[in-house]
Input
Amino acid sequence: MTIGFGNGVFYKINTTSLERFSEEIMSLFHKDRSLNAIEINAIDESLIDYVIDTDSDFSEYQYVSLHAPVRNYKNDTDSNRILHKLEKIHHKHNLQNIVFHADIIDDWDWFNSFNKMPLSVENMDKRKNFGKSIKDMGSILDKYDFKLTLGLQHCFENDPTGKLAEDFQEVFEGRVVEYHLSGYDEKEIHYPLFRTKQDEIISWIKDKGLPIIIESPFDAMGEQSLELKYILERI
Output
């Protein structure tokens, strides 16, 4: 099984966003032998620059993905600069997936010009205007050869029956490249599954051979072990 955390899961207790790359935090993501994947959570361009400019090393992981900054992407100077920087990270760390939210790409033809990288788009939560439905995601995936990162917590928000999660995996069979996994709390949005006990979200994982990135945010170091144990006992 390929499973790991996004390195932003301690954002609640990090003093700065760069602290997610500290030795103390990063050591938590490979102390357990079950962990063999990581998703670099680059919430802004400064974190992209950090990964490029430092001796950050992710070679101990079998699977390395990156969550791109959440901003509007179009054919302008800023967007082109960020995508070219992501190309550098891809070549430096051999990324297997670069995740973009489906609702933030303003120019899909321009975005497609970077398709030599392993780009994927993620289905969206109920707060967003686009990317929640099969129809929305089909309008992208039927036209372009991007992969799909399936946000299971986002599926739960939009349809707690599980039908939407099932339909995504049936309609886009072979296109799903990664699962994002966490529990849901109406106030917190993403929340640890060991607290919410929403085992059905875990049960929606149809292909256990695909990488699973845990996105649950934690209030204290050590909770990641509780979350991992809870998930592994139910997969």
